[in-house]
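Researcher: We plan to redesign the surface later, but first we want a full-length starting point. Tokens attached.
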């Protein structure tokens, strides 16, 4: 478990280091001119200077240091500034900044077995430095591999759209925020063991694979045409019915079944045709 440390300020230790370094120079120069004892004192001052300097560390904003003492985890320093720690501690730098990961485009099969191309972009950062440093080998590689596994699992759990599965509650193409929420939860569960916090995850690319893209496009176009034709026919039938009712209610003209059939035929052609109909004047009667 992560343990946050509050080390002492390093400014006093920095002053001591400067004094030791100046003393080492002074006694070295004096020893050359006077006695070997001053040279020994100079060497001791220089060794103490190196020892204290090893305990000084500067931590930049949104960075941290993970401290170990001969293989034992001591704690993590997350404050920024100049600090002094036990010079025998070993430290590991770790960034706490948010990072972007643009995943590569993967070719996988959706729930219905159709090959699709999918890619995600996510924003993540280190939340638990202990887990990131000691529970996984290299947390950045772990994030990359587990994010790819999460995307593959997401793609295989839902259909691309509802063309083949009309009863699918969620599809990859129309899921929107629900799909993104499921993806974020999947990534959070997988990366929790490495102490990684997922701030945002979104699908950045989604398409049918190239080998079936043409066929699926034709299918979508055919579906759209059928849906449009259905609406046109429903509207035309309603207009014809309204026209017959109006003619009958207002006694404009009496139509027998044959004339009604002819009128319905003409109106359906005019209303459902893709091009404007060309009118033809009938100078006689319907029976001549």
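Model: Full-length starting sequence:
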């Amino acid at each position: 478990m992560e343990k946050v440390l509050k080390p002492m300020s390093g400014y006093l230790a920095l002053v001591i280091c400067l004094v030791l370094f100046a003393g080492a120079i002074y006694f070295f120069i004096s020893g050359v001119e006077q006695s070997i004892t001053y040279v020994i004192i100079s060497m001791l001052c220089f060794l103490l200077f190196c020892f204290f300097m090893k305990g000084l560390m500067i931590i930049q904003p949104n960075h941290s240091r993970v401290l170990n003492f001969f293989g034992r985890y001591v704690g993590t320093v997350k404050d920024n500034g100049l600090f002094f720690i036990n010079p025998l501690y070993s430290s590991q730098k770790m960034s706490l900044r948010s990072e972007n990961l643009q995943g590569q485009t993967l070719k996988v099969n959706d729930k219905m077995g159709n090959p699709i191309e999918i890619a995600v972009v996510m924003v993540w950062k280190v939340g638990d430095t202990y887990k990131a440093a000691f529970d996984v080998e290299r947390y950045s590689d772990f994030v990359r591999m587990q994010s790819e596994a999460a995307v593959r699992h997401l793609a295989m759990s839902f259909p691309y759209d509802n063309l083949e599965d009309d009863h699918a509650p969620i599809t990859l193409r129309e899921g929107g925020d629900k799909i993104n929420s499921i993806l974020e939860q999947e990534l959070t569960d997988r990366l929790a063991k490495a102490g990684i916090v997922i701030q945002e995850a979104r699908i950045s690319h989604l398409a049918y694979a190239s080998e079936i893209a043409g066929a699926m496009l034709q299918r979508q176009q055919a579906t759209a045409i059928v849906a449009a034709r259905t609406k046109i026919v429903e509207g035309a039938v309603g207009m014809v019915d309204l026209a017959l009712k109006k003619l009958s209610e207002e006694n404009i003209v009496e139509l027998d079944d044959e004339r009604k059939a002819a009128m319905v035929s003409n109106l359906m052609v005019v209303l459902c045709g893709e091009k404007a109909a060309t009118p033809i004047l009938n100078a006689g009667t319907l029976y001549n």
